[in-house]
Amino acid sequence: MSGFSAAASAAAAERCALAIRARPAASSSATRQQASLRRSTGPRLPATLAASRRGPVAPRAVATPADRASPDLVGKFTLDSNSQLQVAVNPASQGSVTEIDLEVTNTTGSLILHWGALCRDRRDWLLPSRRPDGTAVYKNRALRTPFLKSGDNSTLRIEIDDPVVQAIEFLIFDETQNKWFKNNGQNFQIQLQSSHHHGSGASGASSSATSALVPEDLVQIQAYLRWERKGKQSYTPEQEKEEYEAARAELIEELNRGVSLEKLRAKLTKAPEAPESDESYSPASQITSDKIPEDLVQVQAYVRWEKAGKPNYPPEKQLVEFEEARKELQAEVDKGTSIDQLRKKILKGNIESKVSKQLKNKNYFSVERIQRKKRDIMQILSKHKHTVIEEQAEVAPKQLTVLDLLTNSLQKKDGCEVLSKKLFKFGDKQILAISTKVLNKSKVYLATNHTEPLILHWSLAKKAGEWKAPPSNILPSGSKLLDMACETEFTKSELDGLHYQVVEIELDDGGYKGMPFVLRSGEMWIKNNGSDFYLDLSTRDTRNIKDTGDAGKGTAKALLERIAELEEDAQRSLMHRFNIAADLVDQARDAGLLGIVGLFVWIRFMATRQLTWNKNYNVKPREISKAQDRFTDDLENMYKAYPQYREILRMIMAAVGRGGEGDVGQRIRDEILVIQRNNDCKGGMMEEWHQKLHNNTSPDDVVICQALIDYIKSDFDISVYWDTLNKNGITKERLLSYDRAIHSEPNFRSEQKEGLLRDLGNYMRSLKAVHSGADLESAIATCMGYKSEGEGFMVGVQINPVKGLPSGFPELLEFVLDHVEDKSAEPLLEGLLEARVELRPLLLDSPERMKDLIFLDIALDSTFRTATERSYEELHNAAPEKIMYFISLVLENLALSIDDNEDILHCLKGWNQALEMAKQKEDDWALFAKAFLDRIRLALASKGEQYHNMMQPSAEYLGSLLSVDQWAVNIFTEEIIRGGSAATLSALLNRFDPVLRNVAHLGSWQVISPVEVSGFVAVVDELLAVQNKSYDKPTILVAKSVKGEEEIPDGVVGVITPDMPDVLSHVSVRARNSKVLFATCFDHGTLSELEGYHQKLFSFKPTSSDITYREISESELQQSSSPNAEAVHAVPSISLVNKKFLGKYAISAEEFSEEMVGAKSRNIAYLKGKVPSWVGVPTSVAIPFGTFEKVLSDGLNKEVAQNIEKLKNRLAQDDFSALGEIRKAVLNLAAPTELVKELKEKMLGSGMPWPGDEGDQHWEQAWMAIKKVWASKWNERAFFSTRKVKLNHDYLSMAVLVQEIVNADYAFVIHTTNPSSGDSSEIYAEVVKGLGETLVGAYPGRAMSFICKKDDMDSPKLLGYPSKPIGLFIRRSIIFRSDSNGEDLEGYAGAGLYDSVPMDEEDEVVLDYTTDPLIVNHGFRNSILSSIARAGHAIEELYGSPQDVEGVVKDGKIYVVQTRPQM
Prior knowledge:
single chain, alpha+beta, Immunoglobulin-like, 8 domains, seven-stranded mixed sheet, about 40% helix
């Protein structure tokens, strides 16, 4: 290996004079490809390796007149974190002009130079007559000149021809951000005639003679120090060069002041100064450092770099690090350590080869990166949905045994409380032990279905393991008292014709903890699997609480109750628990998803130490690992056969650990002895731990081992030992609770340190191999293979590599292990993801040793989450593109971890597209990214809700059965979510959301209904839950959830929510019509603040894009002008006209009249032939008013009519549960023959297809759709809405508008007056992909929104991209639309209350916006949005009033399906 002088000097020579020549190639591409790795440096730094390796930096040629010099850079100023201002001046020669060139880097908006000239004897600015194009005079005091955009930068040239001008002074204004840039609070000033050293970072001139005296290594160090002082900014190549020359100028200035070169070197390297001498230069540091071999200096520098977390060092910092490493080694030598001893000490393991590899590839301690393969992200698509189905196999009633009947009879006794019960098996028979309390008297029943004569051999115990003869006064008749026990003969009995035997024992108040017993039949003793039977008398069985009927709802109830019955056995040891779990796998699988979830909940309670791991039972480690192996084998088999359960199965396996038959577990027992023998530590804490390990090893041992390692590394600081234990949930009380308790603290000697760290490190591998399902090192070792290594460790163990791994996979895993502790997480995250993607095809097949691959994937996922959380600090001041890239990585990791990832993958595609737009500085990149950020949030919320619905009922029911701490039950699902990738992603999104909103000028609010209000703040979880409530004082709701279809409750004057309902959703329209403030708050801090004002009185004042609020007094409330505050209980004066059946079951559009149909049908008929020819109107017929009542009165439907009448009577008594029952009853109506005949004639006569032509089944679908429209008269929202305004619900009549469905590409809703601003000069519209139900229904996410000025229809302005994840599509079909007489009442917004139902079911499609021309094709989008706006304007002009229009787009053509007056 070459010495440092040669290597470092060569590197320094390569790095200096960047503009002169290129650095040699780093390493052959063949070598890099073989390792599947791409080497690169990290962020660009001054004179970094990244700069030095990019090849020659050629000076830029600038065309200048022959008699002029090139412009000099006179100033460089930092404007913000991304932008800098550079100023160059080309001084005037005789009779010419002075040119001032200004360039601002990385600009996004429009910049204005606000400037003037400075002259001697004049205080105000001179406004030069020679001005750039576009310059405007501002108030006769200044000039304002726009910069010209040039790529990512903005430039401007000013020419000064007035010789009296000595300087120019200026500010810069960013119009886009409404932001002024100053020079540290002052004006910028550039001198034109004197020094060029104005502005921070200006590089001064220096003579070449002096410059040559400054060694390049010192210039590099000085440049690094400047870079550190400036906050380690990322520099362009030009900036690097400028910084380098500025550093040189600073050093020359020092030399010119008389500082010697030796003192300068000592100052910069912090080395001892050389004595003044006339001899040639020979610094002291060089004299002493020659003693240290350069290869050792390189190794020591590498070790320092690894300890620092492998940061990306620029060349200057590398030189400093080499000098620091040299000093550390010299200090060792000065203490008397020989070079050979030094070499032996630091050249351990593969450290020398690592350093050699770094130097060979000329990486010089900069982080390498893997080259990710180009692939279609949809290759990792998984569409296995979690479908919760109530248990089918458990519906059949259980055949009760005689012991069940006995239990039931005891529970039904008046005043009888069952305290505990236990069912034991012996052969094919059972014995039931029950402890009860009646009138404060305790009694134990032991009953069996064994029919032969039987003796109970029993005692009582006040502590574990005790056999004590009971007092004679409690012995049952005929009992025989022995020294330590009692024998009682069972008595025969009968219940419901079934025979059993029983012993009843009435206990005294002796404080007994339990009752041990065995059975004797003749000369044969009967035991419980070799142990005594034992009834626990100290704990109360919570399973016997009276069942209200809801307990266990939404769970695999029978499985959970079986788990509860077996829990006492499971507590004996982890071996028992895992074997019981393996026995339950089939029952869990048969119960479906809820069964798998139930198994997971139980194992999770175990893993989080909510359940006892060991009680009164010794078990060998190999037996525990064998039981683990059995259980995880069963899980592996289910993983292969049931892909829809894989997500939950992975969670179970991660909680259980790997296990391993035979030697894998036995190593735990053997290797602790090796540690004690090797390191002479056989007593104290180590012996107590040894006894615990022999008796019953558990996952706690991994934590104990880590605590010992941390304690030793801290030079035996005992507080570090306890800190590690406590952080991982192990307290002193828990250590004392083990059957083999750990009482002592560790106490080691300094000479034991090295050996203990070595051996405990090896031992940790064995512990994690058994107990940890997410340990990366053991997972990789198991898949890659390993064999015996280390004295006394892994003896005789050999695991072969998994076959069929992808090419280059071992190198990929090696890369991951090498970088797992790196401070810069990005390269590691890329490596982890690449490994997971490479592994995925194997996990979808059924290879041998799939279990090992599953555990590897679990470990890769866990490491990814840990590394991401570690990188938060790195992202603190990162550029938007870097944060977006991190989010992209976390999204991909989440997609690899869930069973149904289609939505997440489409989010990822859109996010990556937004990232590219951001890199290209496209104008609306932030608006585009914001839509996908919102969609990702929706996906995470949906996932959280799915987990809660799936897991929390099981956690609550099993928790109650097992007496788990209530706090652990309450946060069960929350903790699962918090520990996954979704929580990591959510944290990143919350960080980035304000950045996007700022760039996109979105603000923190979207004001949907701008009304100034005052009221009392009330925080609610869901608006839906309080929509029927009446508030007795003006109330402003802060609702965490608003779906879009809710009603505004009485008394509510404002609704604030983080949810994003469409501006044209039902609740939004309701709010505007009712003059209620309605707004979305995007800022989590503001929302949390508002939630803290619960029950306080506040005033809210909105603008179009913001809301101000303040606390007020009640006297101010009285003076409030809030329109809703004064009319909280105001009810509009409206009424319904009762409609009659006029003799026709069906009518054509020509017959539509006010007596027959509602406004919806009449308006669509009116449009026919009147709208422009390019606007389509679908053909329509209708089922008129009164038809429902006519059908109900038909003799065919007599029973249905009677049932509905009874239900309506219940409804009149405020029994609102009758609403759902009425809707169900309506669906039982039969169709009169005349109705079918007339409807068929009208539909065919209008050119519409008749459903019956495709078979009776299709007509039945149509008839069911018609009935669903009628039934919607009794949906809760519509009923309470009409009730609120005191409409007679009986008078509400429902016509049905029948239209052929246009299989839409897009659907839209138009308001021809902007509903948010009230501006009648502009149209507001929303557009969704597919059918319009996702727009008008309560589908999550936002539609695309835009406005269009009526006097400029060709220029629609996009307000927001869509975030709705779902689109609805349908083949050619018929839709039946509600058209009630309650939808066109003046002053009452009845639209949207009732249902429109298609004959055929729509297909739900997860939307990919990255291929949608409306999103990605600007020309297409402009054309479609303009056509939609024109259609709305034409209809408004036709009616002469603002309209609310619904329609669709098919193949570019606009169709209007309905219109109504805008309210």
